[in-house]
Amino acid sequence: MHRSTDATSLSSLRPTTRAVVRELLRAGPLSRADLARRLDLSPASLTKLTRPLVNSGLVREESAQSARPGRPGAPLAMDVGRHRFLGMKITGDGLFGVSADAGGTVQATVHRDLLSTDITIVAKQIVEVVNELDPEGIAQALGIGLAGRMLHFDDTVRDNGYLGWDDVPLARLISDATGVPTVLSGDARALTAGVQWSGPGRGYDDFAVVTIGVGIGVGLVLGGQVRAGGHGTAGHVGHTPVTDSGPLCELGHRGCAASLLNAAAIRAAVGVPHGRADLDLAGVVALAEAGDLAALRALTDAGRALGTLIASIVNLLDLPAVILAGDGLGIMPVARAAMAAALAEHLDPGTRAPHIEEFDSTFDEWARGAAVVACQWVLAAPETVGTHRPTQRTPSRT
């Protein structure tokens, strides 16, 4: 479809101006003094940078919180509604799309069952969703989050076991078909971006998002930026050992996090002794709450595995906050006490206990995070947006 060029893209801004916009989106509203300190700029330089942004309406002055002598300290905030971004989360059998403003507020959602895992068919469905979410053709970029070993800003799907895709140039296929610059990200990192921009991670420069359920993943924000590592594999912690004993995972590891915490492992730990293949996590929780010993043991073991895993992450990185998310959060009413005990047991004595928050995240929330990734990409690497090609394997931009 024809793409509108009427709206000014954030990619057209100069690097120093993009830095101002990025900081306001991440932590605003901010006073000029706070903004100058965060960007390590002099007050005069900051005023020079922000004056044209305010005059153009891209940035607005909020009401001053308190009257002070001299120039009032009116906070600056982005006019987020002037910019549209699209985000999608692709699972093994579904596609979840959102349209959002630059601040990550969702304006519209679309859900589709995948007709096939064939790349041509999936790409066609993605294009249909793009056109439905953005009929005016004003979206500045599309972010797609899905499982795999991608960097935070990538153009190729790598090692996605749910779809059976590897080395698939999905970003190029979609941008060529729609005209919308497209960037890919691992789904846990996409969720983390949304949590950072306008979720429970807002206000933290350093935190982790730990996702539990079908799989285990970790998204990391360090120094105010989502990190993916040098090869895109940061956060793949499912096979981290958490106990010397315990069951085997599907790869033959004894006592790794996946063997105790994955949804399939929990269902098997309870379903096998009961002779039931129909149990889901909600059924396991119901059994545990009714006093079933097998279910109680399985969820206690899962809680201990989670607490041990969190402790290892916090010990290594000294994180002030950990956000729990994913479709496995339903186990927490039973598993929470065991998680807290294991966390306290395994934290290094010199490490402060992190703030733990449970974040109920539907697939729409994961898609919203992908829209935030698209905005972050435009602000971080605009030279790639014009060619619709994300930056390749550049750790400094992750």
UniProtKB/TrEMBL annotation:
Signal peptide: none annotated. InterPro entries: ATPase_NBD, ROK, ROK_cs, WH-like_DNA-bd_sf, WH_DNA-bd_sf. Pfam families: HTH_24, ROK. Belongs to the ROK (NagC/XylR) family. PANTHER family: BIFUNCTIONAL UDP-N-ACETYLGLUCOSAMINE 2-EPIMERASE_N-ACETYLMANNOSAMINE KINASE, ROK (REPRESSOR, ORF, KINASE) FAMILY. This is ROK family transcriptional regulator.
